[in-house]
Design brief:
alpha/beta, TIM Barrel, seven-stranded parallel sheet, 7 strands, globular
């Protein structure tokens, strides 16, 4: 695994980030081996072609566990946010009762896996130990975050003696340290509900994501095809929502710049990802991110 992550990291840099300066790579780490992960961050952290440290949401233990803290310490030391992308194989069923029968259950379970990550990071005191650390939840949705924050705050009121290392309410740590990608988008029947969710989370905590190349392939369907998907109201909402940011300086106004830093967002478009980095075809000149 160590050799594989090293190869992937250098492949990203050499094949994508160096030829195209608008692309930024992720430092993929073998996160179950904290020492090897730290060594990789130490080796690549100074290289500005990398914009984040990359983990998966399903691990052997909850990701706030102290065994993972050396990774967070190294990431904070180099000013790198830590991205938690859905999927992973920690050897445990992601439900509380065993393995599911259908892949649709797997897909729905990503949101609960992300909630486990956020809960563990906050309750274990990761953000108290590393006050400059930023965490990005990638491709796990975001509609679940307000309810999780409310529940954690309620439990904290009753059980704060169990976690004396926490100095603030869980929701305050979440607001200060947690960012989320906009893909996949929640699409309630009443669009006002989506606006309410965004208002609670904060627009500055949502990082626009295109899910390239999946969405781009769908958009290339012939316009006359009856099966071609119409733009959803959620997509329209996001386009409107971020239009003012896209028309301004990314270094001063975009939520991506607040996560990755102005130096990583000094081009018209910055894409950060792993096997999802957007190197657009020549016919694409619209600013967007992955």
């Amino acid at each position: 695994m160590v050799a594989l992550t090293r190869g992937i990291n250098r492949w990203q840099r050499d094949v994508m980030a160096i030829p195209e300066p608008r692309l930024k790579a992720s430092i993929v780490v073998p996160f179950e081996d904290a020492a090897a992960s730290v060594a990789e961050i130490e080796a690549l952290g100074p290289d500005k072609h990398y914009a984040q440290v990359f983990l998966l949401t399903r691990s052997q233990e909850p990701l706030g566990n102290p065994r993972y803290c050396p990774i967070y310490a190294a990431a904070e030391r180099y000013g790198l946010p830590v991205a938690f992308h859905v999927f992973g194989a920690g050897g445990h069923p992601y439900t509380g009762t065993g393995w599911p029968s259908h892949y649709i259950e797997e897909g729905a379970g990503h949101s609960t896996s992300c909630q486990t990550v956020v809960t563990s990071l906050v309750i274990e005191g990761v953000f108290e130990r590393f006050p400059k650390l930023k965490a990005v939840i990638v491709e796990g949705g975001f509609g679940w975050l307000p309810a999780l924050s409310w529940r954690l705050d309620k439990l904290y009121e009753r059980m704060r003696s169990e976690v004396p290392h926490l100095k603030r309410k869980p929701s305050e740590y979440i607001r200060d340290h947690i960012y989320l990608s906009t893909q996949p988008m929640v699409e309630p029947d009443d669009r006002r509900h989506l606006n309410d969710v965004i208002d609670w989370i904060g627009a500055d905590r949502l990082v626009f994501a295109s899910d390239y190349p999946v969405v781009r392939l769908l958009m290339r369907l012939p316009s006359s095809a009856s099966s071609a998907p119409a733009p959803s109201f959620a997509t329209s909402t996001m386009q409107t929502f971020f239009s003012s940011e896209l028309s301004q300086s990314p270094a001063s106004s975009s939520s991506a710049a607040s996560v990755f830093g102005p130096s990583a967002c000094n081009a018209a478009s910055v894409r950060v990802g792993f096997f999802g980095m957007c190197k657009c075809d020549r016919d694409c000149d619209a600013p967007h991110s992955v």
